[in-house]
């Protein structure tokens, strides 16, 4: 039944787009009339196909799927040129109308799904300000990370020499500090709703499901499990918000983003509706979980795979941090730890196609006309694995260090090509927060224990080509051992 509805939806969408002009003049793979290249791509691994096409068609090319035009930007240079230079920077930084944005985000009342307009600017500025006023969320976070790492230590001590799947400990860690960031508390019920919301949103925020519901909103009324998902997702977002409100009143919380927003509204009369607060929190919790879970899970995997580098990192952390608590300010003094983190983000490319952008007007890129309504993909997978890296599929943190072992400056061409958080007006709002949090987790973990391969199972090489697809790439389930270091035994 669902298959039939999907096929009808696709056909109607095709007919709708049939009469529309497509982007012209750019090179790109030629597809079938109407269908374009649909039979040559797997949407969940589109980044791999675009990587392959880049060698043939260069750093900007076009293709079409079901009459809809796409362009793919495949180098740091072209991404910077298009997303960083007006007027194209604004024109190409919009978001496509989507079912998810309209239905789950209540008419685009958020940041990530909203088109570029005055309301989006207001919401984005507000979240920037809030993250910044917490020292990028760190004032709250440092305490939380340290508290949480005590649990990690206990968990490690209790399970020493056992093969463990680290995803429980990583997820718990991430939800605890996200709850703390938005609500100022680590309430368990709130965390449960956050997890439920993220998992449901991840299932339905895919292009094909979005297309299905956008074409046939009546599907929402059918009693199948997939057709019930969007309303369940909306429900989980509401439950997250209700929990935050309830906890805030009951516990009289005076910290966290919710308190700051409410306080700002009362003090300065900020014009922000409940609907927008909900959209903002859904984005922060969604954006702050999936990508970071992929990063921390990959990091632990790579530590087990590269024991010699791990040992050097432990020496660095011992020298700089010793037995006191790690702080974000230690980042500057730990170049190898930083380089390992940057290389993990580069090597995996957790958000391989960024979030799709949308041309809000017809514009011209390098003399080629890009029609209004074209979807623009920043192909970060290719940027982070281009041949300019020399050996892009080798995990080598020292590519970010100079001869004396210092981290290359941010202005260095290699660092300039590290666009894993996107670029321009839509660049990730949580970049500093994500890096700070990952550093605290990493440094504290290295103080406590050594990550080793499992004894009963084989830990295969972590291959970026083999990651599990989704909104953010994740390693397949695996096990490692955490061995307490002597000074913590
Ligand atoms: C390793 C961690 C992360 C990675 C790799 C990552 C990557 C990205 C990328 C590639 C984009 C799309 C940029 C574009 O559209 O051009 C994005 C957008 C976004 N990210 Fe992140 N992100 C991470 C962590 C976070 C965290 C921790 C938060 C929340 C605190 C967050 C919140 C957002 C939001 C709200 C947007 C939408 C921005 C907009 O549309 O204006 N992300 N992120």
UniProtKB/TrEMBL annotation:
Keywords: Heme, Iron, Metal-binding, Monooxygenase, Oxidoreductase. The keyword Ribonucleoprotein does not apply. GO terms for molecular function: heme binding; iron ion binding; steroid 17-alpha-monooxygenase activity. GO terms for biological process: hormone biosynthetic process; progesterone metabolic process. PROSITE patterns: CYTOCHROME_P450. Its cofactor is heme. It comes from the Eukaryota. Heme binds at residue 428. Belongs to the cytochrome P450 family. PANTHER family: STEROID 17-ALPHA-HYDROXYLASE/17,20 LYASE, STEROID 17-ALPHA-HYDROXYLASE_17,20 LYASE. This is Uncharacterized protein. It comes from Magallana gigas (Pacific oyster).
């Amino acid at each position: 039944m669902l298959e039939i509805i999907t096929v009808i939806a696709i056909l109607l969408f095709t007919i709708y787009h049939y009469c529309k002009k497509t982007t012209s003049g750019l090179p790109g793979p030629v597809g079938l009339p109407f269908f374009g290249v649909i039979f040559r791509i797997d949407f969940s691994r589109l980044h791999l196909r675009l990587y392959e096409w880049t060698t043939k068609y260069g750093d900007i090319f076009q293709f079409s799927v079901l009459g809809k035009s796409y362009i793919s930007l495949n180098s740091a240079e072209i991404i910077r040129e298009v997303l960083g230079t007006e007027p194209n920077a604004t024109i190409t930084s919009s978001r496509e109308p989507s079912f998810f944005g309209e239905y789950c985000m209540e008419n685009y009342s958020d940041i990530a799904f909203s088109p570029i307009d005055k309301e989006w600017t207001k919401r984005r500025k507000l979240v920037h300000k809030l993250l910044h006023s917490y020292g990028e969320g760190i004032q709250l976070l440092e305490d939380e990370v340290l508290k949480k790492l005590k649990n990690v230590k206990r968990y490690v001590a209790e399970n020493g020499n056992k093969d463990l799947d680290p995803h429980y400990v990583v997820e718990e860690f991430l939800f605890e500090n996200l709850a703390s960031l938005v609500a100022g508390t680590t309430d368990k019920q709130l965390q449960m709703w956050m997890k439920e919301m993220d998992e449901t949103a991840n299932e339905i925020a895919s292009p094909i499901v979005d297309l299905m519901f956008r074409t046939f909103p009546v599907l929402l009324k059918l009693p199948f499990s997939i057709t019930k998902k969007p309303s369940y997702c909306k429900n989980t977002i509401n439950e997250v918000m209700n929990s935050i409100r309830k906890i805030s009143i009951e516990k009289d919380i005076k910290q966290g983003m919710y308190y700051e927003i409410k306080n700002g509204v009362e003090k300065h009369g900020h014009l922000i509706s409940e609907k927008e607060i909900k959209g903002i929190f859904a984005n922060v919790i969604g954006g702050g979980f999936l990508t970071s879970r992929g990063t921390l899970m990959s990091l632990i995997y790579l530590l087990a795979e590269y024991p010699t580098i791990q040992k050097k990192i432990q020496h660095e952390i011992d020298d700089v941090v010793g037995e006191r608590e790690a702080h974000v300010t230690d980042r500057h003094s730990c170049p190898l730890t930083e380089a390992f983190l940057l290389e993990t983000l580069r090597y995996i490319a957790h958000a391989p196609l960024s979030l799709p952008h949308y041309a809000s007007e017809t514009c011209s890129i390098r003399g080629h006309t890009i029609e209004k309504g074209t979807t623009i993909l920043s192909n970060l997978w290719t940027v982070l694995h281009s041949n300019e890296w020399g050996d892009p599929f080798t995990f080598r943190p020292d590519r970010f260090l100079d001869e004396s072992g210092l981290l290359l400056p941010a202005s260095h061409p290699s660092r300039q090509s590290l666009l894993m958080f996107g670029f321009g007006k839509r660049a990730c709002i949580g970049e500093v927060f994500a890096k700070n949090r990952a550093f605290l987790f990493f440094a504290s973990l290295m103080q406590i224990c050594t990550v080793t391969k499992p004894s009963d199972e084989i830990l295969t090489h972590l291959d970026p080509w083999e990651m599990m697809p989704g909104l953010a790439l994740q390693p397949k389930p695996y096990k490692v051992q955490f061995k307490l270091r002597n000074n913590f035994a």
